[in-house]
């Protein structure tokens, strides 16, 4: 992508409305624009990041055996009356009427709809286990939308729903999602710690929140620092095998949100020098809720003995749009964002330090073509801004590799490459630059 043809409305001033760094940087880097309280338009740079995060989430759900579908954003109120949640949900639910005065709502979550789909087709234990997910916009009329996309009213969520014949099987489904979440967040360059959590309005009795530690987070958390260094399951983890050892390893070290924190146990189990009491950002949550929805909505399947039983369910959410902000909270410095490569909007940016100089232009064009030929997501700053402004913009938008092309280096056949994460610089030939990045 040529920057001269891209849409990157960078702001010079710090936006006053932004209270935390990720919100500030997303606005300054021209990633998104607020259209109403908690409702955002994703501009091209931000949209590229959102798509990369979404794709990692999708790949790890698929790897764990979940199946993608797509449910609508609008749902019938009557469906929610079946579970009793239409009245229980309260003012967070956006309620809408169509021209025939039928009551609809913009889905804040999809337990009811997926249960309706399930019960229409699945009648036997032989079709289980089943895990269905979608990545779809949700609406919750939050009392205090704030921190930009981290607490929006309209936001993108991945939500998966598992169906099993009994509790033991449902726990295996839960464990698969637990492991998939460990991998998902690690691939994005995040340390997201599974912590015991309250089940809230979803209901049920087993739940973990995945939390990124950050002072600006909205949840208070307590954990043993050992949990920060546990190994992430590898990409060939056997989801059909026994995952209980991995789960045990992660859940035997103390980690809990403040809602379920057990101070006595914490003090008993965690040595004083390993106690971490801080704040965190909830980027995902998994629930096992048993037969809560299948009882209410009559989602029954025939067991091996032919008798109909309500299925055991779980639901598993990831805050896809919140993750964009959470990653920035974890990866930035005073100059701007430092994207982990896996979610970066572009992998590399070429900075032409003397636009209009035939040799420099030629070297940039050649490098640009070669990186594209190797499928590198490359941005080429071919604008006529002065070098200082190009450096500042590149630091702000956080592209992992900056390639500086100027007349001095070129005279010696060299380009300068700067790694955004730690500022490390190296002088390399164009061939070496391509080999390093591609
Ligand atoms: P929170 O405690 O932050 O209000 P939640 O517990 O209500 O979140 P869940 O119902 O568990 O949210 O939804 C799954 C995921 O969706 C959350 O873990 C979070 O990452 C994301 N999410 C929830 N509410 C919002 C929101 N208002 N804006 C952006 N993401 C959200
Ligand atoms: Mg909430
Ligand atoms: Mg929560
Ligand atoms: Mg939650």
UniProtKB/TrEMBL annotation:
InterPro entries: aa-tRNA-synt_IIb (IPR002314), aa-tRNA-synth_II (IPR006195), aa-tRNA-synth_II/BPL/LPL (IPR045864), Anticodon-bd (IPR004154), Anticodon-bd_dom_sf (IPR036621), Pro-tRNA-ligase_IIa (IPR002316), Pro-tRNA-synth_IIa_bac-type (IPR004500), Pro-tRNA_synthetase (IPR050062)
Compartments where located: Cytoplasm
Catalytic activity line of the entry: tRNA(Pro) + L-proline + ATP = L-prolyl-tRNA(Pro) + AMP + diphosphate
EC number(s) given by UniProt: 6.1.1.15
Main localization category: cytoplasm
GO BP: prolyl-tRNA aminoacylation
Protein family (similarity comment): Belongs to the class-II aminoacyl-tRNA synthetase family. ProS type 2 subfamily.
Description of how the protein assembles with itself and partners: Homodimer.
Descriptive protein name: Proline--tRNA ligase
Organism: Bradyrhizobium australiense
